Amino acid sequence: MNIVSMRDNRYDAILHMVTAADGASKFYAALSNEARYESIEEAVTKDKKLREAYMGHKKWIFIDNKVSTFEQKINRAKQEVQKFLGHVGGTSFYKKFLLKKATVRSMR
């Protein structure tokens, strides 16, 4: 077995969420997290290596940091997972209502 065969046959899909250190470094540095032991540069380097390792997969999903908040990034990841599972429609929706202006009736 080779690496490409293992990558392509082991996983149904790959969801790669780019580290905050790459493109959202203010969030990476601002949060105190005991699990983080890499510097920003080390985190970016490791993230790029992971990206290269999995990017050939036919269902490779890439979630970058081109959003305003972490919640938006999570929502995008949820939408991609829902789409992969065949649940098209997303995780949020908006309703619009058309209101008709009432006519004023005189009281007698």
Describe the structure.
The protein has a two-stranded parallel sheet. The chain is mainly α and 108 residues long. The model has no long low-confidence stretch (mean pLDDT 84). The relative contact order is 0.16. The chain has one domain. It has four helices and two strands; from the N terminus they run αβααβα. The N and C termini lie far apart (90 Å).
* The number of domains: 1
Point out poorly predicted stretches: none
Overall strand count: 2
Mean pLDDT: 84
Beta-strand content: 5-15%
Report the radius of gyration as a whole number of Å.
22 Å
Topology record:
Elements: H1 3-10, E1 14-17, H2 25-30, H3 40-54, E2 60-63, H4 70-85
Parallel strand pairs: 1-2
Structure summary:
The chain is mainly alpha-helical and 108 residues long. It has helices at 3-10, 25-30, 40-54, 70-85; strands spanning 14-17, 60-63. The chain has one domain (3-85).
For this entry, give a set of tags.
two-stranded parallel sheet; mainly alpha; 108 residues
